[in-house]
Write a structure and sequence with these properties.
The chain has 3 helices and 8 strands. The chain is an alpha/beta fold. The protein has one domain: Double Stranded RNA Binding Domain. The strands form 2 sheets. Strands 1, 2, 3, 4, 5 and 6 form a 6-stranded mixed β-sheet that branches. A hairpin with a 7-residue loop joins strand 5 and strand 6. Helix 1 packs parallel to helix 3.
């Protein structure tokens, strides 16, 4: 966290927003790409308050400016096959989804028009479905799968991309705060 309040401006009007899917669209189409972007931006701006960063809309008042260039939301699929000779599920294949969000951004000293770029970087967040043989609550209650030979697909929540967008916004804030802290310490 920064030692003193620091003003920062967030520029997202040049944001390239992309939503890609290779394989299934199990989670990515639950919301629009604009809803994912808005969730990331709200999370980013809320997290700035915890980092002692004060948001301004005026380029003249901004000590630093963050330009979010790209926000990518991607869902892909992979097939995983159970390889357990002792299990009746041996050889069974599951199609698993991987959900990923990535933001690319630049940090400027002052306004963007001053052309003093401090750094260009990115952050990401992801979550995967898994195949598991762990017992769930139902197994404990009924007393089944004691030998862990039953496999099942552990799915994600329907709003996984909203959760990842929120996480990505918080990671951007933490990363910017860390980089500005190091920059200010080095300058003293």
């Amino acid at each position: 966290m920064l030692e003193k309040p620091t003003t920062i401006m967030v520029v997202e009007n040049e944001l390239y927003l992309d939503k890609k899917s290779t394989g299934s669209n199990k989670y990515i189409d639950n919301y629009t790409k604009e809803e994912y972007r808005d969730k990331m931006l709200v999370s980013l701006k809320d997290a700035f308050l915890n980092c002692n960063l004060v948001i301004t809309d005026s380029p003249e008042k901004a000590e630093y400016t963050v330009v979010i260039d790209k926000y990518l939301i991607e869902e892909s699929s992979v097939t995983e096959t159970v390889n357990d000779q002792a299990s009746p599920y041996n050889g069974m294949s599951y199609v698993l989804s991987t959900c990923d969000v990535q933001a690319d951004y630049r940090i400027f000293i002052g306004a963007v028009s001053q052309q003093k770029m401090l750094e260009k970087t990115s952050v990401s967040a992801d979550k995967d479905e898994k195949v598991t043989n762990n017992r769930n609550l139902g197994d404990y209650i009924v007393g089944s799968n004691k030998d862990n030979s039953s496999y099942r697909q552990k799915e994600l929540f329907d709003d996984v991309f909203l959760t990842l967008s929120d996480k990505c916004g918080r990671r951007i804030s933490a990363d910017i705060s860390k980089r500005l802290y190091k920059y200010l310490k080095k300058g003293k």
